[in-house]
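Feature request, filed as a ticket because there's no other form

It would be nice if the structure record came with a short human-readable summary line next to the tokens. Right now we just get the raw output. Example of a typical job, pasted below so the devs can see what we mean:
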Amino acid sequence: MPTINNPRIFLWGALALILYVDYEAWMRDYGAVSTAAPTAVASAQHPGGAAKGPELGDPVPEAAPSVTAPAPAAAAGTPATASPAAAASTAATVETRAAGAAAPAEAPATRVHVRTDVLDVLISTRGATLEQADLLAYPRVKGEAEPVRLENSGDPQTLYALQSGLTGPAGADYPTHLALFTSAADSYTLEHDALVRVPLTWHGADGVTVTKTYVFHRGSYRIDLDYQVHNGSAHAWEARSYAQILRNDPPTKRSYFNTDSYAFHGPAIWDGNKYRKLDVGDGEDNGLALDVTNGWVAALQHYFVSAIVPPRDATYRVTLNVAGEQFLLATEGPPRMVAPGEDGAFAETLYVGPKLQGALEATAPELDRVADYGRLWFLARPLFLALNFVHKASGNWGVAIILVTLLLKLLFYPLSEASGRSIARMKTLQPRIKNLQETYADDREKLGRAMMELYKREKVNPVAGCLPTVIQIPVFIAFYWVLLESVEMRQAPFAFWLHDLSSRDPWFILPGIMAVAMFVQYKLNPTPPDPVQAKVFMIMPLVMSFTFAFFPAGLVLYWVTNTLLSIAQQWNINRRIGAAAAAKHG
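Raw output as currently delivered:
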């Protein structure tokens, strides 16, 4: 019975339970990536053992079998149709091209430099592959010139490339990501126009010419990829487009002092119905092969993403292959025929940049899911929209956090008022409870009965103050994920000494204010009757402030604002309830 006197026990117990459940979900979602051995597919490609480094990106997709249903055999002489005809399979079929199928290995490849107002990109003429992408508006470290770099082929340990091309039946010549293209210029710059087009051309031995064009838009991280095919041969030319993300993605070492280390890092897809984060160490996801309509694939990290979006209403095959610390996430479209002397076109859409939700949503439906708010995304999204709306008006993310926290307080005011009134009534009973404790110091059973009678007589429910607060906890957790995952707040300044809301307070001033505020809040609440409990709650502000000390300053600002508003509300309630009680007994 001793805990029944203190409603805060229920609150802290509920909070501890929810934090534990949240931690478990976090570890399930963001658990360390396994460095398991390569999948069966990779092993088959490299019988001698695991695939080595770039070898995972060497094979070119062949006509892969459908995983949805086996198709009837085609009649003799009938060309392939949009649905691959083969038995159902759970792994993509890949085959390394013969040496003559691609440009000779010794043929020189150059790089085409493309600069827009937001991107600085290098495209290799080997496969017209996007090999390097710097995000000009996002410094890797605030105050330094070096930008965040996504695609990168300079170091095998950080290998990250967007490969794409056209492929078809084995033995023919195709503009794959291994073929050699030519470019009319070695650099392109977006000057005053709305877009810049970067064409690269491939000439096949049989008279087929393909112009592969990257289209960069002003102020956008979306990149359109177009293929224009001219079939100058004497026979029909069958091809299918594909695009793939090749990345060396070693497990991230977790650190309490680095919130980036807890964000999901790896492949993800939208299968047309559901968002899926893929576990490269999981047997089900390794060797993934499925047919997807109106989907997309992406490689995620904290704040940034590279994505491939196939054309709408076309069924593309999505595969994931893993070799050591590398993964290859690919999409491959249906075959299309280009008649002799005719022209054909293929297209993909790429996105390389920050997880700006408006830009992502404009690029493809549900692509904004990569701004990963976890299981409470349905609460987190409205919270982000509120923050974004207030930020547009205020121009400061710190001010937006404060004002949205105030709006949340107003939204939950009725619940908080009910909770606060219950706590205030409990506080007015403290002298009488203390008398009962002294009277029945040696009889816990009688003390419990006497206290229950007191609660019943005064119409006070010790638990009533806890339930309203527990109901608000999912909203608070969702707000936490919004502040942690939204790139819009990355390196955003607030005021005074807080120059980056996404990193810890450099002087630990906010955590200090938080400790003082929580101590004041503790003093406004009823003192637990158990001395041990009282000591635990007294040191809780110190423990919480230390826990938050290394969290992003934006999160601490939210908690401090919420605590100060709670103090003001509880002080006002205590004043009113105390005055009413004095009038009643005076």
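Something like this underneath would help us a lot:
The first helix runs from residue 7 to 30.
The radius of gyration is 31 Å.
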